[in-house]
Design a protein that fits this description.
By secondary structure, the chain is mainly beta. It contains 1 helix and 15 strands; from the N terminus they run ββββαβββββββββββ. Strands 3, 4, 5, 6, 8, 9, 11 and 13 form an 8-stranded parallel sheet that branches. A hairpin with a 2-residue loop joins β1 and β2. It is globular and about 40 Å long. The termini are far apart.
């Protein structure tokens, strides 16, 4: 049993079992199939989601509160070729109590995107009580004219004030 954090293993975190993105939601993880619907269904379900080794091709995903995304081996979340819009590959907006525990690699697939559809790989907005461990972000498609295209963007707001911090990863 893999240890996720001190005293926490894949089967006992929050007293819940992990649901498999493949077995329970029908994702393929073959690097070809568009897995957006299956992965988004799992994320919308919340809870503890296990990703078996694979390459999951998606357009854009929105995370949920009270969830853990976990994998035991290399997993790639890859932006679908010519994905439309400037939406992040994965976003958490006004969510709490969530974690991403890798090794996950978020791949913006910039070689297969048009100049107009630049986007951040991971975007975290107004969230609290969250943890990211063991992730890599690469190949974010940048477009300076629209201000998009970082590997990881963290925006925090509250009490009428807003601060932002952008962490750009190696592309």
């Amino acid at each position: 049993m893999r240890v996720l954090a001190l005293g926490v293993t894949a089967g006992n975190h929050l007293g819940n079992d992990f649901l498999s993105i493949k077995k329970d939601f029908g994702a393929k993880g073959d690097g070809i199939t568009d897995d957006t619907a299956a992965v988004q269904a799992a994320l919308s379900n919340g809870g503890n989601i296990y990703f078996p080794v694979g390459i999951y091709v998606v357009t854009t995903l929105a995370g949920a509160s009270d969830s853990i995304l976990w994998c035991s081996g290399p997993v790639v979340i890859k932006r679908k070729s010519n994905a439309s819009g400037n939406q992040p590959l994965l976003s958490f907006t006004s969510k709490s109590n969530w974690s991403i525990l890798g090794p996950f690699r978020f791949d913006g697939n910039k070689a297969s995107q048009t100049a107009s559809n630049a986007a951040n790989n991971i975007e975290i907005v107004a969230c609290y009580s969250w943890k990211i461990d063991g992730i890599q972000s690469c190949n974010a498609k940048t477009n300076p004219s629209v201000g998009y295209g970082s590997g990881l963007v963290i925006l925090a707001s509250g009490n009428g004030s807003q601060t932002s911090q952008s962490v750009v990863t190696r592309s």
